[in-house]
Amino acid sequence: MAETVKNLLGKLNLSSKEEGVLLQEPSDAELKKLRESYEKAGQEQVFTFYDELDTTEKAGLYERLSSIDPNHINEITQRALHPPQAAKEEPNLAPLPESATASILDSNPEDIQAWYDSGLDLVAKGQVAVILMAGGQGTRLGSSAPKGCFNIGLPSEKSLFQLQAERIWKIQQLAQKKSGKKNIVVPWYVMTSGPTRKPTEDFFKEHDYFGLGQDDVVVFEQGILPCIGNDGKILLESRSKVAVAPDGNGGIYQALLTSNVRTDMRDRGIQHIHAYCVDNCLVKVADPVFLGFAASKDVDIATKVVRKRDAKESVGLILCKDGKPDVVEYSEIDTATAEAKDSKQPDLLKFRAANIVNHYYSFHFLETIEEWAHKLPHHVARKKIPYVDTEKGDTIKPEKPNGIKLEQFVFDVFPMLKLEKFASLEVKREDEFSPLKNAKGTGEDDPDTSKMDILEQGKRWVEGVGGTVVSESGPPDDGVEVSPLISYGGEGLEFLRGRSIKAPAVIEKEE
Predict the structure, then answer these.
(1) DSSP letter at 97?
(2) Which of 220, 307, 321, 369 could form an S-S bond across to 326 if both were Cys, CB 3.0 to 4.6 Å?
């Protein structure tokens, strides 16, 4: 089995190599064998400049090309460009069955409290881990640093990484208080891309892991795939380097294997995993309610959703497609379907469960990755990819898309589940979802909206316990930032009852 897995991972090429390892130029026999494999696959152009390279460059190019199976790349490229023809009849779309769903908006408070208590118990037992998908850079935000390093402009100037780390710290404290146990740990597995790995590691070291144990913050790297030209050829970034790109958030599954993260989880006795994306400043990391809900349903995967704002909001939807759980993109749904009303609640959309990439996995399910990961499809992203012209040797920066990047989506595994092993929990958008995707000043999903959503949430919490917030200005400066070190989800703020808080303010401690 171990050898089979090793071969599969090698074929999928879903891990990049460690830096700092001294590479050696291959022997003539090794080089010949590799050249022949690429020639047979029709990808011999990658060796165009090999003989002109110095020893280090030859070793680096050989090492990279050795990690790629050109026949497999040809196969997945063709499959992505020419997917199997869908059935002519329209797919049967339906909301998930009531047995697989619940909503924070209208659930019995006793049920929510029961999920919270059982979720905290799982944390206290050391059975909960968190996976953060943090491969993106802040390019759209005007920063080359990892997006998690970004300061959204809060009064405290905390980064996204710090906000999320402090929520993990707080949930550990809440579990310790409830159980009476000490030294409870929720390990945090941070998945980066090649370009963001070292800056992420350096950022955590620089900030002393934000109070978490160094051994409990595990940075690992998602895989890569070569970029492909419109002619189907693997592109060279330079004379000595293959053009590569991260394999999408769906690469998380293979990355758990190649990085030995799954082994680490097993050694720690992890049974329940929360996975989410770094750009959501409101994310409730290791949310006990979500964990307790999913565990009570005994499912392999659960997902949080928010209520779609209106029929035209361009979000993917969690639903049932031909009897299987799935995500259907906004562009795949016709107007009539998008505008359809819920027969039981006519004031609501029938299809309203917006996907926010916030998932639960049972460890039992992650133990089966080898059985299905190779079945996940690759999707095509047409891009402008800088490359070296193999005929002239010039570096070209194209003005229009000249090739494709192949990527996998994390939710493509959903349809592989039986419906009874999948569940969905609707949560309040204003409490749990505020993505950071656009540059400041855009007015939507930008640093200002992220900042405002956190400050507005803090204001609601303060007023909810009987405090008063006063301000001489309007949003966002009329809000309050409540540190996660003080409150995870609005609890523990009774000391503010009867107090008047002048906004904008930061509440970091009880005083």
Answers:
(1) P
(2) 321
What's CA 431's distance to the chain center, in Å?
19
Peptide bond into 476 cis (omega under 30): yes
Identify whether the C-beta of residue 383 lies closer than 8 Å to the C-beta of residue 403: yes
Ramachandran quadrant class, 393 (left: phi over 0; alpha: psi -120 to 50; beta: rest):
left
Q: Structure tokens of 487?
A: 């409150």
Q: Characterise 357 by phi-psi region: left (phi > 0), alpha (psi -120 to 50), beta (else).
A: left
Contact 206, 197 (CB under 8 A): no
Contact 373, 365 (CB under 8 A): no
> Encoding tokens for residue 281?
């400043």
Residues 345-366, mean pLDDT to the nearest whole number: 97
Q: Which two structure tokens, joined as six digits, stand for 53?
A: 């390279």
- Region 316-329: what's the mean pLDDT? 96
Tens digits of per-residue pLDDT, 233-287? 999 999 999 999 999 999 999 999 999 999 999 999 999 999 999 999 999 999 9
Please state the length of the chain: 511
Tally of CB atoms within 10 A around 231: 9
Tens digit of each residue's pLDDT (9 = 90 or more) over 47-101: 999 999 999 999 999 999 999 999 999 999 999 988 877 666 788 999 999 999 9
Distance CA 69, CA 8 (A): 11
d(CA 390, CA 43): 12
pLDDT digits (tens, 9 = 90+) for 103-121: 999 999 999 999 999 999 9
- What's the Cα-to-Cα distance from 201 to each of 189, 221, 268, 319, rounded to whole Å? 12, 11, 22, 37
Pairing of strands 353-362, 301-307: antiparallel
205-208 long-range contacts, Cβ below 8 Å, gap at least 24?
A: 207/161, 207/162
